Amino acid sequence: MKIWGQIALVSISILFTAYQWLIHQVPFFTVDFVIFTIIAWIVGWQYDRARHFEKKARASEDSYKQLLDAMPETIFIYHDDKIVYANLSTLRMIGARSRDEVLSRSVYEFLDHEYEERLRERIKLIKKEKRPLTNIEYKLKRLDGSKFFIEASSLLIVFGGKESILTVGKDVTERREQTDRLLQKSEKLALLGQMAAGIAHEIRNPLTSIRGFIQLFKHNQLQEDYYDIVLTELDRINNIVGEFLVLAKPTAAAFTELDVKNLIKDVVTFFNTQSIMSNAQIFVEFDSELPKLMGEENQLKQVFLNLLKNAVEAMPNGGNIDVTVTVKEEGKISIQVCDQGVGIPVERIPTLGEPFYTTKEKGTGLGLMTCFKIIESHSGELKIQSEEGSGTTVEVTLPTITQPLLKPREMSYSAAE
Fold first, then answer.
1. Where is 46: in which H helix or E strand?
2. Do 308 and 411 have their domain in common?
3. Contacts of 335 (CB under 8 A, 6+ apart)
4. pTM, whole model, 2 decimals?
5. What pLDDT sits at residue 160?
6. Which domain holds residue 329?
């Protein structure tokens, strides 16, 4: 460590004392001289020490930046929504020729507007948590206007002496496109035929009823009950079409921090009246300490309402429904819905979630299909275990806000042996 500060301040003290000695004939070696010289030495030492650590910090930051530039992952740092650092992989990903095209610009300039609310909620959580958050998907914009998808995780750090957010991401556009192409090639024709037949069948039934009652109206056979039946059948057609719209029009949901205990309580409270009318009782059990979830509240409520509805309908003579919420393992919460219903044959379980496959007399199969789609969009997992005559257990596993960085797993099905 250089001592230029010490030398300079001590020299000033000596020169001043020498001036006093020569001009005013003040004694050179006095108590004041010793005190001022010691103070100058200490202040100079502190100054030199501060400069030394500042230089080391700059060197460390330069090494840190070189390390980030060498990494293949996309890494950028932003403070108050302004980008303060972007590594070379980030520049290549967004089509920038230099950092000047990126630095000091708002991170929202590179984000598709549908995902802005998702990022805002994410930033709030990042500032609360001290560990990396789970991976989440964003749609970004390049400088030329083209769009792509990344899967990213973020962490609160100190950069340049300021509290900032570091984001590590990976371009998953090619993976998404490849998956979409494979699915389209293998399932498009089969699904199209299956859905076309299902739509025709599901809509033809209520249309046949409506046509018959209109013929009765034509012959002046008017009864108030007939109008109610016609309206019910029209509502049924409308519900079928509505379920298709939910499946066919994906949206970028704004994920927020959720308390799973409050979520399940709200769903059970809302559904309790219907369950009592069906002679079914719902019992809920929670672990004492449950971490928070990241998700879209209304979508998750839709899933659990659908599961409770299926459980009640599987028990025509009534019974108990047990809802158990536990920490399955680090970073995951398990929500199980168990009924005492008629159960499902083992060979039919792999087909659950397919459109128009259902064991209900007037079901469409679209409700469970929607559940699978919602849980998949939350990087979760939905499993169904059932034994004919002994009831069914549906387990939904969802990631917590903080957990080890893992890729989302595909949906899976299982049956009790």
1. helix 31-70
2. yes
3. 260, 264, 304, 323, 324, 325, 395, 396, 397, 398
4. 0.53
5. 78
6. 251-417
